Amino acid sequence: MEGISEQIKGFIFNLDGVVVDTARYHYIAWRRLANQLGFDFSAVQHEELRGLSRMASLEKILEWGDIYMTEAEKLHWSDVKNNWYVALISNLKPGDLLPGVLHFMRQAREAGMKIALASASKSARQVLRSTRMETFFDAIIDGNSTRKAIPDPECYMLAAQAIGMHPSECVIFEDAALGVQAGLAGGFHVIGIGNPEYLPLAHFVIPGFEDQTYSGLLARFSESMVSHS
Ligand code: G6P
Fold first, then answer.
1. 81 Cβ below 6 A of ligand 1
2. How far is the CA of 3 from the centre of ligand 1 (A)?
3. Does residue 51 line the site of ligand 1, with CB under 6 A?
């Protein structure tokens, strides 16, 4: 009988928090905005924003600050935050890739896996350019090519389509609980990156790619799927 590892032919990586730690720059920019509006929020609260679209993030922050804004004001402030964010990521370098991720992706590529990147961020290509990863992926889906925000699986469906795979042939690597939900809704296998407490729905969770090998991870993931079935 064909096991999960024989079924998997494509890997789809989320960007922020999986390939590059850009979440801290989103935090700095959103926090600067909150401070200008007269309040503050913590890094723990910022965890709730992981994977949320720009506008959904702003709305959540305004809720925390108990601030009302018209739609026009929201557009203005989300632009202000984005300009700060874009300036902050302009200095990213190849050394800012998260530990082990490039080595892991290279092993997967050598083993014949197709590799796509899917991100809700409109600045994903800038991040990939600065870290010299723009030509690495077989397909890139970013916030400019999608219309629906996660937990809708649109960005992952488009990524699978772009590498010619059915969702059941792909594993998604995701650090956001909402992104995990999106992957499951699309019929994908999902490996969570981070703390298992925050990612209870993922099929399998690893803290990061440091010390992970392609074959070792696929074997452990495959075993865990058998024991859950
Ligand atoms: C990713 C990040 C979110 C960010 C969203 C939109 O999903 O995890 O924190 O809000 O992209 O990014 P953008 O750069 O277009 O504002």
1. no
2. 35
3. yes
Contact 203, 190 (CB under 8 A): yes
Q: Is the pLDDT of residue 213 over 70?
A: yes
Give distance in angstroms: CA of 52 to centre of ligand 1: 6
Q: Is the CB of residue 51 less than 8 Å from the CB of residue 150?
A: yes
Integer CA distances (angstroms), 228 to 29, 174, 204, 209, 223, in order: 41, 20, 11, 23, 9
Q: What is the pLDDT of residues 106-130, one digit of tens each?
A: 999 999 999 999 999 999 999 999 9
Q: Does residue 33 come out as left (phi exceeding 0), alpha (psi in the -120 to 50 range) or beta?
A: alpha
- Ligand 1 pocket member 54 (CB < 6 A): yes
Residue 1 has pLDDT above 60, yes or no: no
Whether the Cβ atoms of residue 99 and residue 208 lie closer than 8 Å to each other: yes
| Residues 210, 229 contacting (CB under 8 angstroms) | no
Cα–Cα distance list, 224 to 7, 125, 196 (Å) = 15, 34, 14
CB of residue 14 inside a 6 A radius of ligand 1: no
Question: What pLDDT does 2 receive?
Answer: 62
CB atoms within 10 A of CB 99: 13
Contact 15, 22 (CB under 8 A): yes
**How far is residue 198's CA from residue 176's CA, in Å, rounded to a whole number?**
8
DSSP 197: G
